[in-house]
Automatic annotation (TrEMBL), chain A:
This is DUF403 domain-containing protein. InterPro entries: ATP-dep_Glu-Cys_Ligase-2 (IPR051680), DUF403 (IPR007296). Residues 1-312 form the DUF403 domain.
UniProtKB/TrEMBL annotation, chain B:
InterPro entries: ATP-dep_Glu-Cys_Ligase-2, CP_ATPgrasp_2, UCP005522. Residues 70-446 form the Circularly permuted ATP-grasp type domain. Pfam families: CP_ATPgrasp_2. It comes from the Bacteria. This is Circularly permuted ATP-grasp type 2 domain-containing protein.
Length: 317, 470
């Protein structure tokens, strides 16, 4: 397929996944806003939501104090914020429009309808759009788009490039969310065992839609080790770094098989997966959580570049 | 009674092709109508057919208004149109092959040499090269108007890249989805074969050097182009890649596209950009849209470009006057479809007449399109007419004039029911190994009461066009 088409597909997936992450962060913030004012209170929590989103400074420059309504505007509606849900869905739709021919009608329909609905919401009185509706809507359209891909798209190379986009974005998002909150997981934090860190851990799990899954998988006391294990190494958790890298590897393998030509990206992701497969939580704490996560973010980034160089740039090799 | 020919009514009686529709429209309640209208709009939006209007700013996702009342031709009417359109398409192609070759028609004195060779659309880079099968214009869009039961006139020819065919196909899809019973009750000739015929046309003009199933692509200026939807729609319907200039490159004697598996040779390019932008090495050096070196590959027979560079000289408004002459000269036939009488302001006598009669005439720029820069005398104010007078006096050779035609009307849904609105027709004739025309076309309708300008860039709408099966 055209390199440019592959690139558009890949970015559709990345934008959709990014929109979903933004929505989940909004949900976390909203939930925290309902909690009693502890440890700096909810203002602090909106700040950490923005921090996890990687857009705190951009927000402060534009809006000043992180009050809920502004954060909502910024993360959902603001077109000047490239990671806002409206921006992501518009960008996904723009990419989809360009490669209309590589999509099924249902998939285009799902993305285009989402875009039309965003425009409709932009024209709607804000009081008619409670945060919970915005979040629910986003999660629903993201699920719908994923569902149409799953149910209607041919399993050809285009499908694999879409999946690569999803997994690479998700690996990056999980690593970043963990990194922003990594201090909560450190054993030496003085508040261990207090109400606060339980609360913070809950926040982290919720931000990854893994709150209840965690309880099913581990049960018993919530500990930092369990959470780190769950979100980094667990093979059942769909957003764990292991699962993401495993997905990347599967789809790179599928592409290479289809083209009858192995790639540098494939070698890189296999090496990453092999390391994660052997790893224990102790290794991560020994290396230092932040150091480990920085390494993962860098590796995922390089993997993205390798995919781009090999398949998406169209440069002759 | 109105001076305009109404395609549905003959006096008080309904003309036969419209009989089912008359009943259908009469029985439709206002509620149902607005329900169906918004359903149609939602369908268009979901499919993604939108039309950006140049120079208007505003919503790039604006829809072309769709009028649900179909425009109908009887089988007999269509037979004549079909023969006329095919004849014209053959003559235009013969003309192109001639003027980029030996120039017999000029030597015979049937067309003035300067109109051809000094024409801005005459492409020197195309001289002396005969494209496969001698076809230059593979899709000929012929704009027709009707003034009476038997009176059809060609308003203009489009030999480069006529657009709008996606509306012909989608309008039909939407009508079939919304009013299936109409299609059960009447026998309406299908148009859905068009993409297949188009692909077959392109395959038939693959370069001789191509020794396998030809790889066909559509070359688009990009997704900001107002017709991008159509480019992507046609690529999808034909199952071919939609490429931009950056996706193609020239190496050695051939043109390739960049794919995830490496370079892939391209044999036929259906380009949807103007000659000027095809190859920055040959034409405009500042064009970012084209493919450097493409013209060399084309001229050495490595790739077929559809329509061929230079095809535009045949649809120039100054050449238009001579198309009936082409039919006689190349085909030895009498033209089936008539031209609209045209005055060339470049000729002193004509210009004098035009300036004296501006209030009754339609004046157009020779190279204009899309309904821009034209004057509709009877619908214009004194000031507008005076402005045009100066323009014509400044550059007479830039203008032609035609009488204001009494365009036929077709019933159209309006605010408070059904009313006649003026329409035109663009059928799309395919020229390759065979000359083919699907039974249908794009009907454009001037939605404003009394307006004669049907261009979508000027607030026109579209209708489904039916040809009754025999």
């Amino acid at each position: 397929m055209l390199s440019r088409t592959a690139s558009n597909l890949y970015w559709i997936a990345r934008y959709m996944e990014r929109a979903e992450t933004s929505a989940r962060l909004l949900e976390v913030g909203a939930r925290n806003a309902l909690m009693p004012n502890i440890g700096g209170g909810m203002r602090n929590e909106w700040e950490s939501v923005l921090n996890a989103h990687g857009t705190l400074n951009a927000f402060l420059d534009k809006y000043g104090d992180p009050v809920q309504r502004n954060v909502e505007t910024f993360l959902f509606f603001d077109r000047e914020n490239p990671s806002s849900i409206a921006s992501c869905i518009s960008a996904a739709r723009e990419n989809a429009r360009i490669v209309r021919t590589a999509l099924t009608t249902q998939m285009w329909d799902a993305i285009n309808t989402a875009f039309q609905e965003v425009r409709e919401m932009e024209r709607t009185e804000r009081s008619a759009l409670p945060l919970s509706d915005l979040v629910e809507w986003t999660l629903r359209v993201c699920a719908l788009v994923r569902g149409t891909i799953d149910a209607t798209l041919l399993r050809n190379d285009g499908y694999h490039f879409l999946q690569l986009g999803y997994f690479i974005e998700r690996a990056d998002n999980t690593a970043r969310l963990l990194d922003v909150k990594y201090y909560v997981l450190l054993p030496q934090v003085s508040m261990v065992g207090s109400g606060l860190d339980n609360f913070q851990w809950g926040t982290l799990l919720r931000a990854l839609s893994a709150h209840r899954a965690f309880n099913w998988a581990y049960g018993g006391e919530i500990t930092a080790r369990k959470i780190a294990d769950f979100l980094i190494l667990n093979r059942q958790c769909p957003r764990s770094i292991y699962s993401c890298v495993s997905g990347i590897t599967d789809h790179l393998d599928a592409v290479a098989r289809g083209y009858g030509k192995s790639s540098a990206a494939q070698t890189q992701s296999r090496a990453m997966l092999a390391e994660l497969a052997e790893m224990r939580v102790d290794h991560i704490f020994d290396e230092g959580m932040h150091e480990f996560l920085s390494r993962v973010i860098g590796d995922v980034n390089r993997l993205g570049f390798a995919v781009h160089d090999t398949y998406l740039s169209g440069d002759i090799k | 009674m109105s001076q305009y020919f109404n395609e549905m009514f003959d006096g008080a009686s309904v003309r036969p092709p419209y009989s089912t529709l008359e009943h259908w429209a009469r029985e439709m309640s206002a509620d149902l109508r607005s329900l169906k209208q918004s359903e149609a709009e939602a369908l268009f939006r979901r499919i993604g057919i939108t039309f950006a209007v140049y120079g208007e700013g505003g919503d790039p996702d604006r829809l072309i208004p769709f009028d649900m009342f179909p425009r109908v031709f009887s089988a007999g009417e269509w037979r004549k149109l079909e023969a006329g359109v095919k004849q014209r398409a053959r003559a235009l192609n013969a003309f192109l092959a001639d003027v980029y070759g030996r120039g017999e028609i000029v030597k015979a004195g049937r067309i003035p040499a300067h109109l051809v060779y000094k024409n801005a659309a005459y492409e020197k880079a195309a001289v002396g090269f005969m494209p496969p099968l001698g076809v230059f214009s593979h899709i000929v869009g012929i704009d027709l108007v009707r003034t009476g039961p038997e009176d059809f006139f060609v308003l203009e020819d489009n030999c480069r890249t006529p657009s709008g065919v996606s509306y012909m196909l989608e309008n039909r899809e939407i009508m079939m989805r919304m009013f299936p019973h109409l299609f059960q009750e009447s026998r309406i000739a299908p148009v859905e074969a068009y993409p297949n015929l188009l692909k077959r046309t392109f395959a038939s003009v693959a370069p001789q050097k191509c020794d396998r199933d030809p790889t066909i692509v559509i070359l688009t200026p990009g997704h900001f182009n107002s017709a991008y939807y159509e480019h992507s729609f046609l690529a999808d319907m034909m199952g071919v890649e939609l490429v931009e200039g950056q996706d193609l490159f020239v190496s050695g004697d051939f043109c390739y596209m960049r794919t995830t598996e490496g370079p892939k040779k391209v044999d036929v390019i259906y380009r949807r950009l103007d000659d000027d932008f095809i190859d920055p090495l040959c034409f405009r050096p500042d064009s970012m849209l084209g493919v450097p070196g493409l013209m060399n590959v084309y001229r050495s027979g490595g790739v077929t470009i559809c329509s061929a560079p230079g095809a535009g000289v045949a649809d120039d408004k100054a050449i238009y006057t001579y198309v009936p002459e082409m039919v006689r000269f190349y085909l030895g036939e009498e033209p089936i479809l008539a031209n609209v009488p045209t005055w060339q302001c470049a000729k002193a006598d004509d210009c004098k007449y035009v300036l004296e009669n501006l209030k009754d005439l339609v004046v157009k720029e020779v190279h204009g399109s899309g309904g821009y820069g034209m004057l509709v005398g009877p619908k214009s104010t004194k000031e507008e007419i005076e402005i045009f007078r100066h323009k014509i006096e400044d550059r007479p050779d830039n203008y032609i004039a035609q009488p204001t035609l009494a365009l036929s009307t077709c019933p159209t849904f309006v605010e408070d029911g059904v009313a006649p609105r003026h329409v035109d027709l663009r059928p799309y004739c395919l020229v390759g190994k065979d000359v083919e025309l699907v039974p249908g076309g794009l009907t454009r309708v001037a939605l404003t009461e009394g307006s004669l300008v049907v261009n979508s860039s000027q607030g026109g709408g579209v209708k489904d066009t039916w040809v009754m099966a025999e």
